[in-house]
C-alpha cells in the first residue's frame, strides 16, 4: 500500500523510516532518500525555505507517479512524505522510501520518484538569503535526470 | 465572474494569490485570457510565457482551452519540489 503525505509541520526522517520498515516487513530490500534544506545556495547563506503546493493537483500528481513506479517495478511498499510551508536549513523537505524483494527495483524506483518530485511535482519553492527572497525553479540537470526514465522499457 | 489563482513567483508579480474577475466577452479561451490579462495589468509578457501552464477547475489543460463564467483558472509557473 502507498503512503503519501503532504505535511505543513516538521517531520523526522528517522521515524518515517522506522515506520516504513515495520510496514514493509518481509521485503528483501528497502531504499530511502531524505532531501534536506541546504544551508547555502548560489545567492549565499540560506535562512529559510518556503514551499507552496496546489491541492488537489499536488496530491493527485504524486499519486499518479507512485502508480507509475509500481507499474515499472515490483514494489512491496512505497512511502512519499513532502513538506510545505516554512522550513529552515537542516529540515527534511522530502522523504521517499521503497521496498522490494531485491535491491535493484527499490533503488531505481526511489531514484525515479525523486526525479519526478524535483521536476514535475506541483510545488513552488522560495528561498530566503541575506539578498532577499527568490523563487527557485528546477535546474537543467534536474530535467535531464527526469528524461532518463522516458526511454521505453526502463 | 471567474476565480483566478496565482502560484509561485506569479503571486509576487500579480500582488495577490487569488482574485475574482469579470471576463470581457472577447475572452473565450486560455489564450485570450493570457493576452487580455497581461495587457490589462501591463505585465510585459509574464502571463504569456510558454513555461507558465494553466489549470482549469484543478486540472492542467492542453491550450487553448475554453473558459467561461464560474471557472477556477490557475496560472502555474514551472514546478519542482524535493
Can you walk through the features of this model?
Chain A is of the alpha+beta class and 154 residues long. In chain A, 34% of the residues lie in helices and 37% in strands. Chain A has helices at 13-23, 57-72, 103-119, 140-147; strands at residues 2-7, 29-36, 40-41, 44-45, 48-53, 75-83, 85-87, 92-100, 123-129, 132-136. Chain A has a 4-stranded mixed beta sheet, with helices on both faces. Chain A is globular and about 50 Å long. With 82 residues, chain B is an alpha+beta fold. Chain B has one domain: Beta-grasp domain (Ubiquitin-like (UB roll), Roll), CATH 3.10.20.30. Helices cover 21% and strands 24% of the residues of chain B. A 5-stranded mixed beta sheet of chain B has the order 2-1-5-3-4. The radius of gyration of chain B is 12 Å and the shape is globular. The model of chain B has no long low-confidence stretch (mean pLDDT 96). Chain A binds chain B through residues 35, 51-52, 54, 56-57, 82, 93-94, 114, 117-126, 135-138, 142, and chain B through 5, 7-9, 12, 55, 58-60, 74, 76-82.
Brief digest:
Chain A is built from 4 helices and 10 strands. In chain A, helix 2 packs antiparallel against helix 3 and helix 3 crosses helix 4. The chains are: A alpha+beta (154), B alpha+beta (82).
